[in-house]
Amino acid sequence: KRWKKKKNAANPFFRREFLKKLMDGNGEETELRQDAMSLGIDLTGQTFIAFLIKIDEYHQDSMEMADFIERQKAFKFCVVNMCEEVTHSQRTGGVVELDQDELVLLYSSNETVQVAEENGRYLVEQIQKMVHKYLKTTVTIVLGGVHQGILGLRLSYQEARSLLVSAFFWGWERVGWGKG
Known about the structure:
Layout: H1 2-23, H2 29-38, E1 47-55, H3 65-90, E2 93-97, E3 102-109, H4 113-135, E4 139-143, E5 147-148, H5 152-170, E6 175-177
Parallel strand pairs: 4-6
Antiparallel strand pairs: 1-3, 1-4, 1-5, 2-3
């Protein structure tokens, strides 16, 4: 039981290492799928999308910096849990925490590209609604293109990253979509 608790505490680190491995193009498809599964990320499908999620506001108001940092961590924890709840209930991928106020959701399915795109948009809308309802804040979510094969997540992630950089120009609290 104690080992499981320590493993869960280290899970965000291992998930980031997995994402780095995937983005660097290291590892064979079978190995990547096994690594993902061991971390609770279901990447068993053939169609993939990377979503980048940025928490827009934390309602800092007049709080002390230490309180603001704790609130930021708590908000991120809640958003991660909401994304995990959605992906686990639909068995469609998993979430990796990134630095500061960002995370990446890895989406996996056996749907056609068109159906995956439609379901990806629906998933994003569900996450945005949950965050707004329960946290009274907003998130910007950008999606990379839909790609076949687990190695397509790398390209989808790069597309999403480019869109997130562009979000500065078109504003936050939106959904952006990259074409694969």
